[in-house]
Write a structure and sequence with these properties.
- A four-stranded antiparallel beta sheet has the order 1-28-27-26, with no helix packed on it. Strands 2-3-4-5 form a four-stranded antiparallel beta sheet, with no helix packed on it.
- The termini are far apart.
- It has helices at residues 2-24, 424-435, 437-440, 473-480, 483-492; strands spanning 27-36, 40-50, 53-61, 63-69, 75-82, 90-98, 101-108, 113-119, 125-132, 144-149, 154-159, 166-172, 178-185, 195-203, 206-213, 218-224, 230-237, 248-256, 259-266, 290-296, 302-309, 319-327, 331-338, 343-350, 355-362, 371-376, 379-385, 393-401, 408-418, 446-451, 464-470, 496-507.
- β15 and β16 form a beta hairpin.
- The chain is built from five helices and 32 strands.
- α2 (424-435) packs antiparallel against α5 (483-492).
- By secondary structure, the chain is mainly beta.
- Mean pLDDT is 92; it is low at 1-22.
- The longest helix is centred in the N-terminal third of the chain and has 23 residues, at 2-24.
Length: 509
């Protein structure tokens, strides 16, 4: 009997593994909500759970916006907070608990400072500390922050860009104040010029920090000690054949089985204006885009392991953020945000360290640094912000099994009710502007519209219906956040009393 039970148990586990692999191979992103922000250019987004409530922090130029996030992925505005000297943008935001108190640490990029905020019960923020750059630290143009918890204390590691490159460590006191521990100035050996990504692994009780150098075109490994000091372990530079580290950008990692991996993306320097002085090393060679996987050896050093190359079936051009969505002992699901492809690419990393693409969603806006994964119950979400100054929005996405839409098209129905004082000329111009979207947004396959002719008395004052057809979800997202569509909304908004929108999938004619 015991052998039968064992056989059944093994069979169940085997089938569960197969089902998990099948599900992970068919995951997709579905937008759930989007909201306006007060700060411009939402380059940084993070999230946090506090006492069972879920909060989102969106940082832009001048402000940080706070939202609550519910189990359906809906955002509700709570508050907004002004950054030091109204600068920013808020970069490298990370929320964590230090000795029982919840804090949000913020890199004020153009304020050359680190701001610490206490997270209150309702998610609002209260500034408790401000550390400005000095000759002994590397906080100028602060980009990335990483909290590292040791046995007796916690430390904040800071990476900067441009004029004062290097890596700095600060002890985090119980009240959120920061005390400088050590700073290491960038040199020709280590890759700390433009640290835009950091990650930590613990190996046999020892803590290791991994950084990417945007200007250095490489990655570095550091051992972090109990007192917050650190030393360099090894460094890996870009090459022109099988590495993709020119403009090393996001850095993250996972542990699968007995293996520890570090995943590094890059926004290649070719995507920047070569006539400017922003890119320090002008002799780079472009040989494509890819996401690099490194394995951590027994000494905590990085070893090149695998590269997922970009092709016509992936969206990996200009990787700016890589988020770990979920992990089990066998595989991890990753989300890669891209600035140049304006998409979120889902990928799977298996236990052997092989990274493979799953599906992508074209968001309709470029992602710069603002992408954060967040779990509520059994559901996984992504929160994304744009680097576009004309958008000023943060969006949420749920990650769920892909729905088969083959042979179908998407109808987007917009019903409008104009204000009573809207003139005939204004309404006519609005009609023309709406129909003209077809000429400005190629992803629209058709627009059909008309004026209400119903005599049933159930139209509730809505007079105009526009039916837009898309071939897929990507086209709808591009339309929603397209500049032409946003311009239309701003133009006709003042004369609209109400709007009613519905979408549905139907068989293509």
């Amino acid at each position: 009997m015991n052998s039968i039970k064992g056989f059944l148990l093994i069979s169940i586990l085997f089938l569960s593994t197969i089902c998990l692999a099948q599900v992970s191979d068919e995951l997709m992103l579905y937008r759930k909500d989007f909201k306006n922000i007060s700060g411009k250019n939402t380059v940084s987004v993070t999230s946090y759970e506090k006492n069972g409530s879920h909060f989102v922090f969106a940082g832009g130029v001048g402000n940080i916006d706070v939202y609550s996030l519910d189990k359906e992925g809906k955002l509700t505005p709570i508050s907004n907070h002004e950054l030091y000297i109204k600068k920013g943008p808020a970069r490298g935001m990370v929320a964590d608990n230090i000795n029982g108190t919840d804090f949000l640490f913020v890199g004020n990029k153009h304020g050359n400072a680190i701001e610490t905020f206490k997270i209150l019960a309702n998610g609002s923020l209260e500034r408790v500390s401000l550390v400005e750059d000095t000759e002994d630290t590397h906080l100028g143009t602060a980009i990335t922050l990483q909290v590292i918890h040791m046995k007796k204390a916690s430390y904040l590691f800071v990476g900067g860009l441009e004029n004062t490159p290097g890596l700095s460590s600060f002890k985090i006191e119980a009240d959120g104040k920061l005390n400088h521990v050590q700073s290491m100035k960038d040199d020709d050996k280590i890759h700390t010029d433009g640290i835009i990504g950091m990650f930590t692994h613990i190996l046999k009780g020892k803590t290791f920090l991994y950084t990417g150098g945007f200007q250095d075109n490489g990655v570095s490994s550091f051992r972090v000690y109990e007192n917050g000091t650190f030393k360099n372990i090894n460094n890996i530079s870009d090459n022109t054949t099988d590495r993709y580290l020119t403009g090393a950008y996001p850095v993250t990692g996972v542990t699968l089985g007995d293996h520890r991996y570090v995943i590094v993306g890059h926004r290649h320097h070719k995507y920047y204006d070569p006539t400017t002085n922003f890119i320090k090393r002008k002799d780079f060679v472009y040989h494509g885009d890819g996401v690099s996987v490194f394995k951590v050896n027994k000494k905590g050093a990085l070893v090149p392991h695998f590269v997922l190359k970009d092709d016509e079936n992936t969206k990996l051009a200009g990787q700016t953020r890589i988020e770990v969505v979920s992990t089990n002992n066998n595989e991890a699901i990753l989300a890669v945000g891209t600035r140049d492809d304006a998409s979120i690419q889902l990928c799977k990393l298996n236990e052997k360290g092989i990274l493979s693409p799953i599906n992508y969603l074209e968001t309709g806006f470029s992602i710069y640094y603002g992408l954060k994964s967040h779990r509520i119950g059994e559901d996984n979400f992504l929160i994304a912000g744009s680097n576009r100054f004309d958008l000023n929005k943060v969006a949420t996405y749920k990650i769920s099994p892909k729905v088969d839409r083959s042979g179908k098209v998407l109808r987007h129905i917009v019903n409008l009710k104009y204000k009573a004082d809207a003139t005939e000329q204004q309404v006519h111009e609005a009609e023309e502007a709406f129909v003209n979207l077809k000429n400005e947004i190629p992803e629209i396959t058709n627009i059909e519209w008309g004026i209400n002719d119903s005599e049933e008395g159930a139209s509730k004052g809505f007079t105009h219906t526009f039916t837009i057809t898309f071939n897929d979800e990507n086209s709808r997202e591009i339309y929603l956040f397209h500049k032409a569509h946003l311009d239309l909304v701003n133009k006709v908004g003042p004369i609209i009393e109400d709007v009613f929108v519905m979408d549905y999938w139907t068989t293509a004619n």
